[in-house]
Design goal:
- This protein folds into two domains: 50-161, no CATH class; 162-199.
- Strands 4-1-2-3-5 form a five-stranded mixed sheet.
- By secondary structure, the chain is of the alpha+beta class.
- It has helices spanning 2-45, 103-108, 122-138, 163-199, and strands spanning 50-68, 78-90, 96-100, 141-146, 155-156.
- This is KCMB1 protein.
- Belongs to the KCNMB (TC 8.A.14.1) family. KCNMB1 subfamily.
- It holds the Pfam family CaKB.
- InterPro entries: K_chnl_Ca-activ_BK_bsu.
- It is a multi-pass membrane protein.
């Protein structure tokens, strides 16, 4: 009687472990799919792939401009802010080009190098942009990214999705997938050993 209870408990434990392993594998597949349709296209479409050194030539703050907070947004998302324009000397080619914070900055407003987040306090936005301009003037040489193919003549300060960020995003589903497969393999080995012991 006790042996039957032990066998039943063992089978229940194996079933739960097998479901856990399959669930981990399924979740990792869903995470891979989500990363594949969100982050990977942005990474592959970015043409600013080569890092070089940029030297600031000028950093001017012009009059306030209007810019939508998001692409295709309504009028209520449009807010004014001082337009910071940073021109740099590209070391790779020696050209004078416009600097943008990220790829998204160029798409949202090609006139300005930096787009602040939507804020009700215009003084804070102005102070932040003035601080960024002073930092550019203070640290005139810094790494930046340019398009080696020449389709984009401007440069960006940082990539939205660099290679390290993509690998870090793929790390967690990979660990979950590996753990799920390991659990399934261990359960199958346990079942095989149990059947072999019973046969002997």
């Amino acid at each position: 009687m006790l042996g039957k209870k032990l066998v039943t408990a063992q089978k229940r434990g194996e079933t739960r472990a097998l479901c856990l392993g399959l669930g981990m594998v399924a979740c990792s597949m869903m995470m891979y799919f989500f990363i594949g349709i969100t982050i990977v296209p942005f990474y592959t479409k970015s043409v600013w792939t080569t890092e070089t050194v940029c030297k600031v030539l000028k950093a001017n703050i012009n009059d306030k401009v209007l810019c939508p907070n998001t692409k295709g947004s309504e009028d209520k998302a449009i807010f004014p802010y001082p337009c910071l324009q940073v021109c740099v000397n590209l070391t790779a080619s020696g050209q004078e080009v416009m600097l943008y914070e990220t790829e998204d900055t160029l798409e949202r407003n090609p006139k300005c190098s930096y787009i602040p987040g939507k804020s009700e306090n215009s003084k804070e936005v102005k102070a932040r942009i003035e601080k960024i301009a002073s930092n550019f003037k203070k640290h005139q040489t810094f790494p930046c990214y340019y398009d080696p193919g020449g389709t984009q003549t401007n440069v960006i300060l940082r990539r939205l999705y660099p290679l390290k960020g993509l690998l870090f995003a793929l790390l967690w589903p990979t660990l979950m997938f590996t753990g799920g497969c390991l659990i399934i393999v261990l359960v199958k080995i346990s079942q095989y050993v149990s059947v072999l012991s019973a046969w002997q």
